[in-house]
Design a protein that fits this description.
By secondary structure, this protein is of the alpha/beta class. The protein has two domains: 254 residues, Rossmann fold (3-Layer(aba) Sandwich), CATH 3.40.50.1480; 155 residues, Rossmann fold. It contains 21 helices and 15 strands. The strands form two sheets. It has an eight-stranded mixed beta sheet, with helices on one face. Strands 3-2-1-4-5-6-15 form a seven-stranded parallel beta sheet, sandwiched between helices. Strand 5, helix 12 and strand 6 form a beta-alpha-beta unit. The protein is globular. One of its GO terms (molecular function) is adenosylhomocysteinase activity. Pathway: Amino-acid biosynthesis; L-homocysteine biosynthesis; L-homocysteine from S-adenosyl-L-homocysteine: step 1/1. Belongs to the adenosylhomocysteinase family.
Length: 571
Amino acid sequence: MPLPDDDPELHVGDGAVLTGETEEVAPGTTEERAKDQAVKISPNLLQMLKAAESRWSPQDQDRDGTEVSGTVKLVAEALKTDMQIQLSDQKQKFNKCPTKTGHLSLSRSISQSSTDSYRSVCSESSEDESSPKDKLQKTLKGLSDFCIKNIKQADFGRREIEIAQQEMPALMALRKRAGGEKPLSGAKVVGCTHITAQTAVLIETLCVLGAQCRWAACNIYSTQNAVAAALAEGGTPIFAWRGESENDFWWCIDRCVCADSWQPNMILDDGGDLTHWIYKKYPSLFKRLKGIVEESVTGIYRLYQLSKTGRLCVPAINVNDSVTKQKFDNLYCCKESLLKGLKRTTDVMFGGKQVVVCGYGGVGKGCCASLKAMGAIVYVTEVDPICALQACMDGFRVTTLCEVVKQVDVVITCTGNKSVVRREHLDRMKNGCIVCNMGHSNTEIDLESIRTAELRWEHVRTQVHHVIWPDGKRVVLLAEGRLLNLSCSTVPSFVLSITAATQALALIELFNAPEGRYKHDVYLLPKKMDEYVASLHLSIFDAHLSELTDDQAKYLGIKKQGPFKPTYYRY
């Protein structure tokens, strides 16, 4: 951008060299110094000065009405000329470059896809604020059994799903190996999970394996609208959009369950909301289910409560405590996605920041590892002495939230519990403290206690609120206490492939299990299935497993093909 002609702030002293560098004033007369400087000026700059001088008019004056020195004008004009020359040269070079339609098209496609992906995942739609419930949409085939934000985004959502497929080898392998057998033929699966490109690969894999699916979102902020559109266009009834209200959330779940001439016989849940809804509102349907697959701490807790009181009348598989979920999804997924969510929403630098992580389970371990790698000072709160000892031996100070809440810059919850951060903690936080949640449920932060008349909420940007106290103190709340990584960013497809493959195998196991194999209780996946899921992902790393000899297998008392560890083994 050219400099303004009347820039009064540009001054050149007697001893300055016009090369962008400063130099001490040399001894001697002004004329001698000027002569020395003239030697140092490059020929190109002299040409530019002459060109500028030819355009210089003595009548030009500065903004105050006084004549600007000739040197100032010459320099300003020279800079103009230089920039014009550079722009001209760049344009000529660009015009001379050979163009290849394929390369330009690919470049634009990648750039546009990256931009649209960020907008799709992290921004709220400003084009259409009306509720999807108020408008009738149809697919190209005339189907209307869905409720999403915009069916016109289907093409872009399909590209997102295809990208995710490349990083989800296990599900793609299941399609090839079991697609012909259709092990889920006759299964009617109703699901309530995050609706992202990764879960879309899972949903479509279940359909390839023979299942009929209907789906809702387990989080009001995590749905990728374009992906939901692609699924609906592909024929899967989807009831979800980003930014649902609480009423919309339950309405979508009910529309999934209550359909004409269609009743589910399997549940795939994340959080237990779908299971709870069917149990409370459709008890007769609940009793006819063949099985439930649950992958969250919150949902598993609810299932165990039903089991202990004798109200669980269907077998369920606990995916959350499977090895493939605990050791990979909880740890590595959160390790890589936590910082992405925090930086996209706050642009904060973590070097030297004080952060407290509430909970040191699989999720907490992943969060702490990524924060520590960024140079943050990390504190951990825990109720479990075993997890607390692990945190200590990993180099973290274990303390209580009350002890450090006044000094920390960031508070992260990942316990699966309720009211971990309460009003008493929020009142003591310093100005600008960031509060967020990496657990499944938004109950970990007591939001009701800060939805009061004396506190003001200010919407700063997407998924970012400032809660302002009467004295002016601000607490930065992310995603209104909901799951940070999926609400504010995206997660690695490869890690989710491990969990998704486990969920698919759990559904196949429950649906095809002979009568009497599973009672009305909560079960863990057999160790052999965990090992099978892991083996499906090794090829992408070009990893080669060693094999036991007959003598070695006999010595360990196991089969050569596994399982290699007993059920009670902790990896």
